[in-house]
Amino acid sequence: MSDKPKDYCGIFGVFNHPEAAVQTYYGLHALQHRGQESAGIVTSYFDPVKSKKVMPMYKDFGLVLNVFSSKRIFREQLLGSAAIGHNRYSTSGAATNASNIQPFRVHYKNGNISIAHNGNLTNARELRQQFIDDGVLFQSTSDTELILHLISKSDKPTQLEQIQDAMSKITGAYCLVILTDDKLIAVRDPNGFRPLALGKLGESYVVASETCAFDIIGATYIRDVQPGEMMIIDRNTLDTGEPRSYHLERQTGTEVSQCIFEYVYFSRPDSRIFGENVDKIRRKLGKYLAREHPLPNIMMGDPGDRTPVVISVPDSSNTAALGYAQENAELGYDCKFEIGLIRNHYVGRTFIAPGQQSRDVKVRTKFNTVRGVLEDRVVIIVDDSIVRGTTSRYLVDMIRQAGPREVHFLVSSPPIIEPCYYGMDFPNPEELIANRHNRDVHAIADAIGVDSLCYLSPDGLVQAVKEAHPSNHDYCTACFTGNYPVPVTTGVKKEENELT
Fold it and tell me: Around Cβ 398, how many Cβ atoms within 10 Å?
């Protein structure tokens, strides 16, 4: 029922831990917000019975807790001291294909290899067509399988060189964890679209999409995997205390372009991504929102003897709402942050009440209002984004029923006007509420039923992030501006490659 953009995946890897699969399980649990459709883990160990290195795998549709519900999976199957794991979100058609569940695992001329991928390849269509022309058979519709084919077809002599060769042929957004018979390899694309971090747990090394996956297992954050870095973790790393790294070349004319929407919505507020705490960034977004749209500029009349209230749409906009209320107070405008919406965290993604399949019922299963907070008050709703606007309309209708004096809606990001080709799933451009109303903010406000609607400007968004986190790296704002930092080959969607 969520009317939010969706990220494609969360990835996790661990090397040199006696319970690698268990640590990966907890890491994936912490990264569940990045993908809820399927989960999988692959481990690596030497099997004395078979006298060879093996890579057992377990994966299925569902949440991490559901997929790995039996302890026997870890006791009898997912053995070994190295593992990688993956949580997946996909576009709708490809979601029903079990062959797309990651990690992928194959055996080829240089041994076993498994891979988990977060992101989207912008030259996937070209690569797939080249392989089809060469007679290559595909088992999935995922971009990730293309990377395995590139590795296996490389004529380079060593496995590392084959992986490097494959990386030189792909473009777009990708973070990878690759497991071989004796190595854990972490790769981040040269433009650095998606986050990937390195941590340490005792004598073990871990990598993850977000640092919240380190916190759950007690690992220590070391640093980010840098844009264009291919990091090698193996037995040599345990001796030297430092992973080896190779540098991947960035496309000519492109720069580092970290996804700014990771800060706005995707990542957990307790995570550190791109070198900075997400909570800190979101608070700054709220403050900039207050500077651009302070209370006196949006209120219609006298609030009476009751202080205006600022509420969030839980949970991703909580910190931005706090920042908005705090900045208004510092500017001398009286307001109060309140909990006006309560979120039910126990509603599953597939919940449908028999005979009640309308969106308003689904919204009410997830949210409810606190009437005493909202009644006869000027209410300022702060949210991180609006996509189609349908959920926003139902939330506003619920709030109206609580009897507020005025309802204003503020968004801590600019209007979403373009699709993303770098690892996020947005609706078609014509489905976006900003485009349906010709980017007329007043018309959008009428559509969702509020007295006023204000967005953070694109410049304000970037300035807020850079003020909170001074960095030489730039950010991708393509979904807000249409400025794509890496050329995109559009055309065939994953669903068009499905067999059924």
Answer: 17
- 79 and 15 Cβ atoms separated by less than 8 Å: no
Write down all domains in the chain, each with its CATH number in brackets.
6-255 (3.60.20.10), 281-472 (3.40.50.2020)
Cα(89)–Cα(39) distance, integer angstroms = 9
Helix (H) or strand (E) holding 244: strand 244-247
Among the options 9, 420, 454, 476, which is catalytic?
Answer: 9
Active site residue 9: yes
The reported pTM is 0.90
Rounded distance, CA 360 to CA 369, Å?
Answer: 14
* Residue keyed to tokens 């690992």: 219
> Do the beta carbons of residue 402 and residue 369 sit within 8 Å?
yes
d(CA 75, CA 312): 43
Q: Taking the CA atoms of 136, 139, 145 and 148 in sequence, report the sign of the dihedral they define.
A: negative
Report the 10 Å Cβ neighbour count for 133. 8
Other C-beta atoms lying within 10 Å of the C-beta of residue 182: 16
pLDDT digits (tens, 9 = 90+) for 300-347: 877 777 899 999 999 889 999 999 999 999 999 999 999 999 988 776
Task: Evaluate whether 390 touches 3 at the Cβ level (below 8 Å).
Answer: yes
